[in-house]
Amino acid sequence: MGRGSHEPLPPFYREWTSVWKNKPETEKIFIPVKRMRSEKELLSKARRLDSSTLTEIYRRYSPGLYRYAARLLGDQDKAEDCVAEVFSRLLESLNNGGGPYQHLQAYLYQIAHNWITDQFRARPYLITNANLKLAQAKTDPVKVVHQRLELDRVRLALAQMHPDQRQVIVLKYLEGWSNQEIAETLGKSVGAVRVLHHRGVKQLKHLLRTPEKVV
């Protein structure tokens, strides 16, 4: 039987939601996990709120979630907020007896997808790469400017796409996910993902060819 909503969240919740901001940038790219347990095993123990399992889940999935959010939002602080919100919602669901029984990665990315979509709807002009560190200090400043401008164009175009099409494009081309993994995240068939991919690529090309629509 699940825990009631009136019960306080476990003590490691605070660590989950605060540790990220204290991590050096290099550790946000990859945080090693001693033993890679299957998602089935992780979820089985996570549903019992086992602290070591919850910590492993955070360490395994937070770097990818951060990259995913940063690429779409172009803002490190917002990306960190997204990661914190994802694990906050997961822990709240588990604490109340809910949460996923399978496809943990898909579940986490769907939360991130919904949160980012809400950000776009609330603030259409949110996207900026002012806080992203895109190049080393010795890089040609002119190249850095052009790189940032191009990234802005892509992000602004992605922000105008249908949320599902945007998610397919980002997960497939930036995260390297298979159609099956994307289908699990979206709760759709592989065939539907292929359709979204085809339409998304077509729309993205159109938006990138039309600068006035992405200003």
The major β-sheet equals:
none
Q: Helix and strand succession?
A: HHHHHHHHHH
Catalogue the unreliable spans.
Answer: 1-7, 26-33, 125-138
**Helix count from the secondary structure assignment:** 10
In total, the number of domains comes to 2
Would you kindly provide a brief summary of this structure?
With 215 residues, this protein is an all-alpha fold. Helices cover 65% and strands 0% of the residues.
Characterization of this structure:
This protein is globular. The chain has helices spanning 12-18, 25-29, 39-46, 51-73, 76-95, 104-122, 141-159, 163-174, 179-186, 190-208. It folds into two domains: 7-130, no CATH class; 134-215, Arc Repressor Mutant, subunit A (Orthogonal Bundle). The protein is an all-alpha fold and 215 residues long. Helix 3 packs across helix 4 (51-73) and helix 5 (76-95) packs across helix 6. The protein is built from ten helices and no strands.
Topology at a glance:
Elements: H1 12-18, H2 25-29, H3 39-46, H4 51-73, H5 76-95, H6 104-122, H7 141-159, H8 163-174, H9 179-186, H10 190-208
Helix pairs in contact: 1-5, 3-4, 4-5, 4-6, 5-6, 6-9, 8-10, 9-10
Task: Jot down its keywords.
single chain; 215 residues; Arc Repressor Mutant, subunit A; 0% strand
